[in-house]
Amino acid sequence: MTNLSGFGTATQNLRTGRDILHAACSKSMPHDFSQRLAALVDRYFSERLAEAVAEGILSDCEDLCVLAVGGYGRGKLSPFSDLDVLVLTDLSEVSLLEGLAAFLFHPLWDLKFDVGHAVRTVQQNIELAKIDFKVLASFLDLRFLAGNNKLYKNLSSKFAEEVLPVAGSSFCNTLWENRQTVGVGMDSVVLEPDLKNGWGTLRDVQFVHWCACIKGNYSPLNEKDLDELRDGEALLIRARSALHLTAGRKVDRLDIERVADVAELCGVKGYSPAKRGNDLLNKLHSAMINVRSMGDALYRESFIKDLRTFIEWSGPISLKSALELFEHKSRTGNPLTREARRAVSNINSEIDISLGDALTLLIKIFEAPYGWRTSLEMLDSGLFDSFLPEFSKVAALIPYDGYHRYPPGRHTLLAVQKCCSIYRDEFEGLENPDGVGLTPADFDILMLGAFFHDIGKGGRAHSERGAEITSEILSRTSFSEPFKDDVVFLVREHLSLIKAARRIDLSDGDSLLEVAGKVGSLRRLKLLFILSMADSMATGPRAWNSWSESLLRELYSGLNQALAEESMHKFDNAQTIAETKAAVMVLASEVMVGDTARSMIEAMPDRYLLSEEPEEIVCHMKQVREFNSAYEKDLIRKPGGKGGKGLNLVRAAQNGGNGRTKIVISARDQDFLFAAQTGALSLHSINILSADIFSWADGTAVNIFTVETPPAETTPADIWARVERAIMYSMTGRLSLDYRLHKKRNSLLTKAKLQNVPTQILVDNESSELCTIVEVRTQDRSGILYGMAVTFSRMNIDLRMARISTTGDSVFDVFHVESAGCGKIEDREYLKELVGALDYALASVK
């Protein structure tokens, strides 16, 4: 602890008071924590200034005063808030006060306060406030602390008379423009809000107060609005203070891992941490929505009222009228007045429109030019609760999965908006080579499918449960039965394409036909593809990226081909293989001797010929030829059976600038090879997305990895040569991957992750005729793929394909495996042993 005994009574009082205040937060934080902390600092400045006079640093305080500005000026401080202070003086030489500044602020820095200060005259402040909006903003929250109060009053009056009339309106306009950039693309609350600068948080609270200060009143806000504004501000400040205490530092983004602890400090009760966190976030979201809405109304109806056309309503409103009001807004983009917004938030309980007609109006809103923002305002107003309480119940849930960015309500409306965009960009008005187009009625089906797709959230098997709820809701309408069936189908199957893209081998025609059979038609495939893509996009960047998009599009292309046939017959693999061999032979004859090419082609497994394009195969052949030459030389150079051991050849090519690189590793097929390759890549921080393992009949192994392209600024130029050496050294006993990966995981530079994703291992022997499919879901951490590959190798199991998906802190890996030389693994005891061994291996990776 810093020794502050030499700093005087004021400093000791502040330290003691702060320690006592923090001690009072051991279980629950006082409601007035931020005010009490600000009061302690207020007292410090008053006492410290008196000490400066007593110690002769100042003769008196007639020439200066100390003022709080910014957040501190509002009389509220979070534990690690900025502490902004202005020393105001009428001395012409402000440099004379440098000693006083050191006397006032050095103790605060030693106490770890983040102090920002300035020493200026009244006139300097006025001139600066006219040209610097940051200074202007800080003076809107000016507060006297100690010294000569007349100086403070002089500055306040000059600021009101000379600055606000000149710069006030342009200041508010600039704030509005900057404010509109927060949440672009998703103008709403998020699951992990920035409590200071985020949408609807403390910066928006200040926007309301600042605009009202410059305007002179809070109209069109009423007393109830102002009560809600005060309550919302108090909650946001309390949550931010609790977040600071929980993190032990200044942090403003409330991440999902800390929300339960923050909720407990805020006094939120609940039977579990998840329940407490859910309740706190719901309260915060409600406050943020109210704050944002008030800021919108006050600015629009005060500063740009003559420039906009408003949608007005006074008095009670029915559900039908409210929906028509929002339908008008979705077409025109005109905002509702504050009074109209209050009306739709307090709608009459009497229902004067059928559910079917309400849903029809909702579809029109979704499809309209301004439907996206209109739907968000409908959600924020609580209108959905009037005719679809099932949706409102789900909208308030908080997902703790680590990859959803928004609560279910906002996620759903974003998915609807993405469906509109994808449909218009890729399907509307375009010629369909397959002859199957989407009609306006199909678009309506898509809108409702997207709107209802997550209505079953809140338990397991939410797709099936959602389909049941959707069916019940639509049974209360007069939509046609085929229309209802299509909507229910989309809800039930909205995850099926994403799951299939991650788990099936697209070279396996039977697997494709099985998925195509579930989809049923090209029309439904297109609708399901749009919804699948939109749902993933709306989930956030942890679930949707260029790799997941490529997997989904590749699956869509295969299913489109399968469904385009009038009869769903089996793929003619023999013909495809023969055509590929012929094409490869033609291309290969240009770069190598015909006999060499012919022997290589005959050694290739069927799955390889079905998976790879002829041009790619020829590139692999040239690499194999280069490897074989090096292998033969190594055999001569290293007699006694040591030649060729561990030798491999790594070649990499970036895949079209989409953030992915394809790596082809050629070697002699041998035990532990795939494990050594995955371990070496992991050791060099190469994130593997998928792997295809091909064993040729002549003993050649060609393993193809798709990885995230490593960042150039942090990756050595010879990274692939290093990977190549690491594979060889691990295969020859010169490098222990177990030790190196353990050391890497426990490095001080490695960010620790909370172990909150339980391991699940499933075995599927039904989906593929050729392989056993092993699915593993577990917590993401370095080296887990290596650990599983070692387990497969030790249990004499051959891998044919691996596909790796990471969403948030969770990984979902799918392996297509065979018992060595025996195809599918049918022995139940063998499978049980495999699951146990994988579970043990994953538990050992910490």
TrEMBL record:
SUPFAM superfamilies: ACT-like (SSF55021), HD-domain/PDEase-like (SSF109604), Nucleotidyltransferase (SSF81301). Gene3D superfamilies: Hypothetical protein af1432. The keyword Cytoplasm does not apply. GO terms for biological process: regulation of nitrogen utilization. InterPro entries: ACT-like_dom_sf (IPR045865), ACT_dom (IPR002912), HD/PDEase_dom (IPR003607), HD_domain (IPR006674), NT_sf (IPR043519), PII_UdlTrfase/GS_AdlTrfase (IPR013546), UTase/UR (IPR010043). The keyword rRNA processing does not apply. Residues 1-302 are annotated as: Uridylyltransferase. SMART domains: HDc. Transmembrane segments: none annotated. Residues 662-740, 773-846 form the ACT domain. It catalyses: [protein-PII]-L-tyrosine + UTP = [protein-PII]-uridylyl-L-tyrosine + diphosphate; [protein-PII]-uridylyl-L-tyrosine + H2O = [protein-PII]-L-tyrosine + UMP + H(+). Uridylyltransferase (UTase) activity is inhibited by glutamine, while glutamine activates uridylyl-removing (UR) activity. Its EC number is 2.7.7.59, 3.1.4.-. One of its GO terms (molecular function) is phosphoric diester hydrolase activity. Its cofactor is Mg(2+). Residues 408-522 form the HD domain. Pfam families: GlnD_UR_UTase, HD. Keywords: Hydrolase, Magnesium, Multifunctional enzyme, Nucleotidyltransferase, Repeat, Transferase. Modifies, by uridylylation and deuridylylation, the PII regulatory proteins (GlnB and homologs), in response to the nitrogen status of the cell that GlnD senses through the glutamine level. Under low glutamine levels, catalyzes the conversion of the PII proteins and UTP to PII-UMP and PPi, while under higher glutamine levels, GlnD hydrolyzes PII-UMP to PII and UMP (deuridylylation). Thus, controls uridylylation state and activity of the PII proteins, and plays an important role in the regulation of nitrogen metabolism. PANTHER family: BIFUNCTIONAL URIDYLYLTRANSFERASE/URIDYLYL-REMOVING ENZYME, BIFUNCTIONAL URIDYLYLTRANSFERASE_URIDYLYL-REMOVING ENZYME. Has four distinct domains: an N-terminal nucleotidyltransferase (NT) domain responsible for UTase activity, a central HD domain that encodes UR activity, and two C-terminal ACT domains that seem to have a role in glutamine sensing. Belongs to the GlnD family. This is Bifunctional uridylyltransferase/uridylyl-removing enzyme.
